Amino acid sequence: MPIDFEKITSLAKRRGFFFQGSEIYGGLNGTWDYGPLGVELLKNVKQAWWRAMVQMRDDIVGIDSAILLNPEVWRASGHLENFTDPLVDCKECKMRWRADHLEGDRCPNCGGELTEPRQFNLMFKTFVGPVEGDAAVVYLRPETAQGIFVDFKAVQGMTRKRLPFGIAQQGKSFRNEISPGNSIFRSREFEQMECEYFVRPEQADEAYRSWVQERYNWYLSLGMKPESLRLREHEQSELSHYSAGTTDVEFLYPWGWGELEGIANRTDFDLRRHSEFSGKDLSYVDETTSEKFYPYVIEPAAGATRSALAFMCDAYDEAVVNGEQRTFLRLHKSLAPYKVAVLPLSKKENLSAVARQVEKSLRPHFMITYDETQSIGKRYARQDEIGTPYCVTVDFDSLEDHAVTIRERDSMAQERVPIAELVPALREKLEG
Ligand code: ATP
Question: DSSP letters of 83-102?
Answer without folding.
Answer: -EEEEEEBTTT--EEEGGG-
